[in-house]
Each structure stands twice: as C-alpha cells, then as structure tokens.
Amino acid sequence: MLGVECYDGCRRFSFTLLAVNAEIIAVGSELLTPFRMDTNSLFLTEQINQLGVEVVLKSIVGDDLKRLVAAAQHALFRSEIVIFSGGLGPTEDDLTREAVAEALGVTLRRDEAVLASIEQRFATRGWKMSPNNAKQADVLEGAVVLPNPNGTAPGQWLSGKFDGRERIVILLPGPPHELKALFEAECRERLRSKLPPASLATRVLKVAMLGESQVDARVAPIYKRYGDVQTTILAGAGEIQLHFKSRAATMDAAQARVDEAADAVEEELDDAVYSRNGESLEQIVGYWLQMRNATLAVAESCTGGLLGERITSVGGSSRYFSGGAIVYSNTVKTDLAGVPADMIERHGAVSREVAAALAEGIRYRCESTFGIGITGVAGPTGGTPEKPVGLVFHALASDSGTEVIERNFPGDRQRIRWFATTLALDMLRKKLM
C-alpha cells in the first residue's frame, strides 16, 4: 500500500529520498515488435541523470495485465523512483493505470475535472468523444494529476511509502511529444524538490584499434580501485568506449572521482586513447589537421566512399578535406589516382603496392598535405586463399614518405568497411600527433 499524507487539499510528503535509483517501464506490445522502438526511456534517462539519479533498470512490457502488475511490483520493491511510459490511452489494451493500482493496492476513481477537460478538448475540435475515452479520467487513489497539453491522457504522480519504503511513482503518456512536454512542465521540478542534493558525473574515453579483452586486461586493475566509480566498456568495430560514472553530493566531487579514475586509465592506454570528451575519431582528426594547417585527400576502393563520408560528416571539414575518389575499378585507379596499370597487373588491385600508389597519387592530384589509399576485399565474395575476405591495405602518404598497414578484419561487409576506415583515420591521427 502506498501511504500518503494530505494537508489543506494538496499533497505533501514527509520524507526525503536518499541514495536514489530509478527504473523505467515502457508499456506497449508494439514496442516488442521490430517496427517500433522505445525512445522515451533515452529522454527520461538523460533528464533523471541531470538530477543526480541513476537509472538502474529499463524494461518493456506488453499490454498484459498480469505481466504489468508483476513488473510494477518488482520495480517498486527495488527502485525508489519508478516511471511508466505508455498504456494510458482509451482502449482496452491500455492497462497501465489498472496495473499500477493493483500493484500498489489502491483504487481508481473517475476524476470529474479530468473528464470535463477531455470532453472540452473534443468539443473544441468539433469531435464527438467516444465513451471509452472516459477511462483516461481514471486516477489512482492519492495521485496528483499532471495536465497533458498535447493529449487527452494526463500523467499521474504518487509519492509516499510502499511496503514501508519511500517511493515516487510517475505515469506518463506514451507519445514522445506528449511525454517530453509533460515531464519538463510537471515532473522535473517536482523531482528536484524531493531529492537530496546530488550530482551524477560522467566521462567517456574512446580507444581505436585495440580489442575489448586487451583493453580490459590492461585497465581492470586500475578501475577496480575506484569502488565509487562505475566503469562500463563498450566494444564496436575498431573502437572501444570506456564510460565512467560517479554520484556525489556536488558535481565537483563527483567529477573529481570520475576524472581521477579516467586519467589513471588514460595514462595506461597512452596514445591509443583518441578522445577524452566523447568526440568522434573523425572530429579528432579534423582538429589535428586544422592545428597543423594540413589538408587531406583520399582514394578508396573497398570502402566505397565511407572514409570520405565520415570525414565530411563533421561541420567545417571543407577547411581541411581536399576531396577524394572512389576508385573501384582498375581503370579508375589508373585514371583518377595515377596507379600504373602494370603495377596492378603485377601485384593485383589488393596489394601493398597499389595502396601506396593510391595514397601518393591522390595526394599529388589534389595537392594535399596527406593522402590516404585503401584497397581490400570487403566480401562476402571475391576472396581467395592468398587474399581472403577481410584483407585490407591502408596507406598514408606525406612529405616524409608512405606508410602501409595490412590488416585482416573479421565480420561482414559492413564491419570490414568500418574497421578499414577507422584504421585509416587512426593512422592519420597518430601521424599528426
């Protein structure tokens, strides 16, 4: 049972939440299909983190009363703040109100003021309200109604004790434009007033071209020393992200702990860390090129323009990116990048020699400081025992000469192409450093 205290016609609550965690439950069977994604929880997590609260669990539950009741009961047992999104509509499968009421052991009442507001909304638009819309005026016993200016389903807010534990329960509509506006107008400051002073600090380190297990083996002994800093390692194609998070009474205190842990990890990984504040590899390369007053041109075969796309995805890249060519056929390799035809015949299009010639040729044609050449076998076909799928040669040409790196990347065509462009960018980053 959720216990509440009421004074002078408005609800006030006599507790202060400490060491607060939150849980988000997205409601709707459509979110369990391949056709609809839960984006509300991303928005809510960002908003709640800004209040110094960590979201410890997210779940999606279909439109099934028993499952919703069970999900609500488990959430109320383990989390101080529980937010439901969706399931507040007028149809038979909108069951969030009923499920939360059962989980809390409270009743639902038809709020005449809410009902009148819904009726007025329909009348203003010249529409006839269906009888089933009236269920959107059902309010949990003890709840504060949160007006929804963008829809007919109001939000609801409950705060008090559930089985002796202090809890905040929030019900929000599912449509994102309704949920966001309602949360910002009605929930953010309510939460802030209930929460103790707290801040959640984060920091992200990004590492290029090292394996996840290799990174963790090096840094685990370091981050384990910081029990009050949560460290998460995420792996992508050619990139490792290390996320650090800590909560404290002030942002300065939380950030100091995060920075201490991140700095120690960064010292161990040295120049493998390319970003300290969340920037992308292409952004970092752009920064370095501008600082060196340098320009870049690229000649791509197996990556098919992906490298150029990544470079030009950064605003202002025209200041340092001269241009490039997608040199897929052997004839175009010769015509646009100046690769000698007899070189391709002798060594093959996928070779160290051709990669170097691509980098040097495109640099010469574009009159740029640096030239990058990429050639390889992206698959899924075209590989041979000598040159298997995943084999890629990367070349970087400059005044000081031409460097070539050979790699055999795992995965499908998309991953191989992404790996290849990541290595090419990281080669340039290290050269610029």
Describe the structure.
The structure is a single chain. By secondary structure, the chain is α/β, with parallel strands linked by helices. It has 3 domains: 2-194, Molybdenum Cofactor Biosythetic Enzyme, Chain A (3-Layer(aba) Sandwich); 201-275, Alpha-Beta Plaits; 281-432, Maf protein, CATH 3.90.950. The protein contains 13 helices and 20 strands. It has helices at residues 40-49, 65-78, 96-104, 112-124, 176-194, 212-223, 251-269, 281-291, 306-312, 330-337, 341-347, 352-366, 413-432, and strands at 2-3, 5-7, 10-12, 21-27, 54-61, 81-85, 108-110, 138-140, 144-146, 155-162, 165-172, 199-208, 230-236, 239-248, 273-275, 296-300, 321-326, 370-376, 391-398, 401-408. A hairpin with a 2-residue loop joins β19 (391-398) and β20 (401-408). The radius of gyration is 29 Å and the shape is elongated. The relative contact order is 0.08.
Could you give the topology of this structure?
Blueprint: E1 2-3, E2 5-7, E3 10-12, E4 21-27, H1 40-49, E5 54-61, H2 65-78, E6 81-85, H3 96-104, E7 108-110, H4 112-124, E8 138-140, E9 144-146, E10 155-162, E11 165-172, H5 176-194, E12 199-208, H6 212-223, E13 230-236, E14 239-248, H7 251-269, E15 273-275, H8 281-291, E16 296-300, H9 306-312, E17 321-326, H10 330-337, H11 341-347, H12 352-366, E18 370-376, E19 391-398, E20 401-408, H13 413-432
Parallel strand pairs: 4-5, 4-6, 6-11, 16-17, 16-18
Antiparallel strand pairs: 1-10, 2-3, 7-8, 9-10, 10-11, 12-14, 12-15, 13-14, 18-19, 19-20
